[in-house]
Design goal:
The structure holds three protein chains of three kinds.
Chain A (H helix, E strand, L loop, with lengths): L28 H12 L1 H22 L30 H36 L4 H15 L2 H14 L3 E2 L2 E2 L2 H29 L2 H8 L4 H37 L11 H8 L8 H34 L1
Antiparallel strand pairs in A: 1-2
Chain B lengths: L4 E12 L2 E13 L4 E5 L6 H9 L6 E10 L2 E2 H4 L1 H7 L4 E4 L13 H8 L12 H10 L18 H15 L4 E5 L7 H18 L2 E6 L2 H7 L2 E6 L2 E7 H6 L4 H8 L39 H5 L5 E3 L2 E3 L11 H7 L1
Helix pairs in contact in B: 6-7
Chain C lengths: L1 H27 L5 H6 L5 H10 L6 H13 L13 H36 L4 H15 L2 H15 L16 H35 L2 H8 L4 H23 L1 H14 L5 H11 L2 H29 L2 H7 L8
Helix pairs in contact in C: 1-13, 5-6, 5-8, 5-10, 5-11, 5-13, 6-8, 7-8, 7-11, 8-10, 8-11, 9-10, 10-13, 11-12, 12-13
The chains are: A mainly alpha, B alpha/beta, C mainly alpha.
Chain lengths: 317, 333, 325
């Protein structure tokens, strides 16, 4: 059985002779240390490499493989010199489609995370600044309900219904990409807001916040000016982690036929199409685009792991 | 007589963010059967680390680098995990520093008592409720026998500390008890009761106790003999009377001076400037020299050895007061 | 305990109500005529009018909402546009496959995840820990639908005949066949779940092993096995239980995908099909049922956990959200 001699530092033994004087925290110092964390371990370096590979596919796809929508005579051709990833049932170049899909998937994921941040950060910071008041209570209970909802299912309903009604939201015509962005952004809200709230509650107690209050700076300026800068690092780490979730969610929705519609490719709807050709032996059709998808998710998670490791001592106080 | 525990030149280091720090610096101390030995010093002076080194319960980033840890003639440092396990609890008990968090919060107290005493001698192998009730009576907790199916957070700090003492000292019947600042987190009145309890148990069970504390008054109440630690070094040793009446090391003197009430009300209370600061790893000279009022050049140059002095031992270049060098003292021996 | 149960049950109702309301809003605010959406694109004007009256869509907004709610509560979910059968009948027919998938995956994944997390946390920094850490990260990152396609290749094309790669037979008809059909779908569903549980538990084991109570247990000569299993694990499992609950939604989402890939006649597949065919009454019936299942499963996990670990009730009383731990 496992040996407990490798258990972590118990609080029982006092730390070695060392004083911990309070040092004022320089602005955004956190971000710099996150940069160091990313290159510190092998696993995060590999993760970084995988992300670079994904970005390389996106960039190379702009120049190689041709038009992702151009059909050809060479139908379901296996990978070769002419078609790096082979062709699909319409003779389209799968590498070009994968690259274009990777680009669109990335754009959708990025947009959802940014939208999620834009909504959740102010909410979380207000809740954190007014922690344990009715404002906090109201915001957090609402987010609790969101968290308890089966969001994936609701996303399916949302997209399914709006497709039936000609792609509009509350009567406003909305491209399906935007709808997917909104659906995914909503799923990020509870976590982002929670992290922003926790970080704000810590910052609120710092001396600088007190001094600002004393010299009469308005609450609005304190929260969205001074505090927000120091709340950013943990929130950005969270946002980074959710990039993987967002890419995954977009792919899953597209795979179900509910996301971006053909002929525009995303990594998900490529696999949706590929599904019908599995038993024809067209392995390249599903294996290669799926591998690209997995590469970026593994990469993001590896780097995210390193970032959370760096973050956790901060969250513990 | 052979000592029960003989710690010889123990050196324990911590690794932290790539740097190594020495928490215990070649410390030696002995405990005889039935004796109450105090180890005093400020937080961070290495007292607890020394005890945990003996029990082999250091955190993974700490390591015993050198020294011998003889318990009953067996070196615990090299004996291996199996021997250590047979010693922990059974031969050497531990009363922890923070009673409130030393029992698992999710398990009923009765179950934890049984679990913790599972490997220990007991007249009643079934560890019946009657045995547990008897244990509790022995530490003055007769009143809570009806609440044993509660969880730890439903007890007070003092009650929990009595409970832990009942388990570690009475239930497991060790020959030696390590009490690691057992009263620090308790109210003064409760702390006094715990001290009295420890003293009674010593008399009753013939326990030897190592009492680690930064509170000199508790030490004075409980201990027969005292070691004074500063920054990982043992700087003075002596029986409790001589330490309090004629402190020989300037640090001991400073510690005694910082006890309120040893001075007349109008006299300003002396305060020892500074703290056990980050001393450089490769330091030379006496660890206390930077804060010492009577330090001279030699104190910054050579590390003083612990040498016999009247009524004990002291590691100070300035002993006997104001004069002497290590070589002088050596000749005195 | 009773208070805790009541509060959790009420909480579940609030979530269900929120889901139902959201669905109502999505449907009611959809452009054009909800009756037309329900009736489908090819319906005649008379059909639409009839449906409007039938569904109580003539009334004001609050009236419509109340009609919808009372219909949903009584199980009157309308008829499928394609088959004309009651939505409830269709959904209940498809329910067993989905329920079995999700529950079996949960039952398979939880103990494996706990075992891995406990092992890795107790041997933090060892080779085994690294293996678990990397292995779970990768299994967590594999998109389920891609893994399912790979398995289709492997067992459908290259190694045919070992395990079925599609379809489902009810347990009551052919128990052995049922088990065989469950193997691949459950593998796909359980993998990320195992990883999630193992990763959470690993970290909380690590945390628990550094606590004072572990130190005291070790000082009382408890063996590493006893310390890990009896002292550290019961504490470490609290945050993990929360993750098990929170990830249920993930699991249910996974069943939709798995049903589609492995052509399992479950509610997920029915829902996706219905949306594709624009059979909205049926699609919405599926949604409400899945939401109900999700909420009930969550409630069961929470209550089971409160039975095992009483401190959860204590925390609840103190209005500390377990999620903040």
């Amino acid at each position: 059985m496992a040996s407990t001699s490798t258990s972590p530092a118990p609080a029982m033994v006092p730390p070695p002779v060392e004083t911990t004087a309070a040092v004022p925290r320089p602005r955004l110092a956190g971000l710099r240390s996150f940069g160091q964390a990313v290159v510190a371990t092998w696993s995060s370096r590999i993760g970084l490499l995988l992300i670079v590979v994904y970005l390389a596919v996106v960039v190379v796809g702009l120049f190689v493989g041709g038009d992702p929508l151009a059909q050809g005579d060479d139908i379901l051709a296996p990978p070769g010199a002419e078609h790096l990833f082979g062709t699909d049932q319409l003779g389209r170049d799968i590498f070009a489609r994968t690259a274009a899909g990777a680009r669109l998937s990335l754009a959708v994921a990025l947009a959802s995370v940014v939208l999620g941040l834009a909504v959740a950060m102010p909410l979380g910071m207000v809740a954190g600044y007014f922690a344990r008041t009715w404002i906090d209570e109201l915001i957090m209970r609402c987010l609790d309900v969101i968290m308890a909802l089966p969001l994936f299912i609701l996303g399916v309903v949302f997209l399914g219904l709006s497709r039936g009604s000609g792609g509009t939201i509350l009567g406003v015509p909305t491209p399906v990409e935007v709808q997917v962005v909104i659906v995914i952004a909503i799923t990020t809200l509870p976590k982002f807001a929670r992290v922003a709230r926790a970080a704000t509650m810590v910052e609120r107690e710092e001396d600088y916040a007190d001094s600002l209050r004393v010299i009469g700076v308005s609450r609005f300026r304190i929260i969205f000016g001074e505090i927000s800068i120091n709340v950013l690092p943990p929130v950005l780490v969270q946002a980074f982690l959710w990039m993987a979730v967002a890419i995954f969610a977009e792919a899953a929705l597209s795979f179900l036929g509910l996301g971006v519609q053909a002929p525009d490719p995303t990594l998900g709807n490529l696999l949706h199409d590929a599904r019908n050709y599995v038993l024809h032996g067209a392995w390249w059709y599903s294996v290669l685009p799926g591998a690209v998808l997995m590469i970026v998710i593994v990469g993001l998670n590896l780097v995210g792991d390193a970032l959370t490791d760096r973050l956790s001592p901060q969250l513990r106080d | 007589m052979e000592p029960l525990l003989e710690v010889d030149s123990l050196r324990t280091t911590y690794r932290r963010q790539g740097r190594t720090r020495t928490a215990v610096r070649d410390a030696s101390f002995v405990v005889h059967a039935g004796e109450v030995v105090g180890i005093v010093g400020e937080s961070g002076s290495g007292k607890s680390t020394a005890l945990m080194s003996v029990l082999g319960l250091l955190p993974p980033n700490a390591e015993v680098v050198s020294g011998r840890l003889l318990f009953d003639g067996v070196d615990l440092r090299t004996a291996g995990e199996a021997v250590l396990r047979s010693v922990r609890g059974r031969e050497i008990g531990l009363v922890p520093q923070r009673p409130m968090t030393s029992l698992s919060p999710v398990t009923r107290v009765r179950r934890q008592i049984r679990r913790l005493l599972r490997h220990h001698r007991s007249e009643d192998p079934a560890r019946s409720d009657a045995t547990i009730a008897d244990l509790l009576h022995r530490v003055g907790l007769g009143g809570v026998t009806g609440r044993l199916d509660n969880y730890p957070h439903q007890f007070s700090g003092g009650q929990l500390q009595r409970l832990l003492i009942a388990i570690a000292a009475v239930g497991a019947r060790p020959r030696l008890l390590f009490a690691d600042e057992p009263t620090t987190t308790l109210d003064p009145t409760v702390a006094a009761q715990i001290l009295r309890l420890l003293r009674d148990l010593r008399d009753e069970l013939g326990l030897a106790i190592v009492f680690v504390s930064h509170d000199l008054r508790s030490v004075a109440q409980l201990c027969d003999r005292v070691y004074v630690m500063y920054a990982g070094d043992i700087v003075e040793e002596g029986d409790v009377r001589s330490i309090f009446d004629e402190p020989r090391h300037p640090y001991t003197r400073a510690l005694l001076d910082s006890i309120p009430g040893r001075h007349t009300p109008l006299e300003p209370m002396p305060v020892l400037a500074g703290s056990v600061s980050s001393l450089p790893e490769d330091r030379r000279g006496c660890s206390f020299a930077p804060r010492c009022a009577i330090a001279v050049e030699v104190c910054h140059e050579n590390t003083p050895e612990l040498l016999p002095a009247a009524g004990g031992q002291v590691a100070c270049h300035r002993y006997p007061a104001g004069g002497g060098t290590p070589s002088d003292l050596g000749e005195d021996r | 305990m009773a208070g805790y149960v009541v509060r959790r049950v009420i909480g579940s109702f609030v979530v269900l109500l929120a889901v139902a309301t959201l669905v109502f809003v999505l449907v009611d605010f959809a452009p054009g005529d909800p009756a037309r959406i329900y009736a489908g694109a090819d319906a005649t004007e008379e059909d639409v009018a009839a449906i409007r009256t039938l569904m109580g869509l003539d009334g004001s907004l609050p009236e419509r909402y109340l009609t919808y709610l009372s219909n949903a509560i009584t199980g009157d979910l309308g008829q499928s546009i394609f088959t004309g059968r009651d939505v409830l009948t269709e959904v209940v027919e498809r329910a067993p496959a989905t329920l079995e998938l999700a529950i079996v995956a949960l039952i398979v994944a939880t103990p494996i995840g706990i075992a891995l997390g406990r092992l890795a946390g107790a041997r933090y920094g060892s080779k085994l820990d690294t293996a678990v850490r990397v292995g779970t990260l990768v299994s967590f990152s594999i998109p389920g639908f891609w893994l399912a396609l790979l398995l289709l290749f492997l067992f459908g094309l290259y190694l045919p005949g070992i395990v079925p790669t599609g379809g489902w037979v009810p347990l009551t008809e052919d128990p052995w066949g049922n088990v065989q059909h469950m193997i691949l779908p459950v593998l796909v569903l359980a993998l990320p779940y195992v990883a999630m549980i193992a990763r959470t538990l690993r970290v909380s084991m690590l945390d628990a092993l550094g606590r004072d109570y572990v130190m005291f247990a070790r000082a009382m000569s408890l063996s590493p096995r006893e310390v890990n299993g009896q002292v550290a694990l019961p504490n470490a499992i609290i945050p993990t239980a929360t993750v098990i609950g929170l990830a249920l939604a993930y699991l249910i989402g996974g069943t939709v995908i798995v049903e589609v890939v492995f052509t399992i006649p479950g509610i997920g597949q029915l829902m996706i099909d219905s949306f594709e065919k624009q059979d909205f009454p049926l699609a919405i019936g599926c949604t409400l049922f899945i939401a109900l299942f999700c909420v009930v499963l969550n409630l069961v996990v929470d209550l089971l956990y409160a039975v095992i670990n009483p401190r959860v009730r204590e925390l609840y009383r103190q209005r500390v959200s377990v999620r903040d731990l």
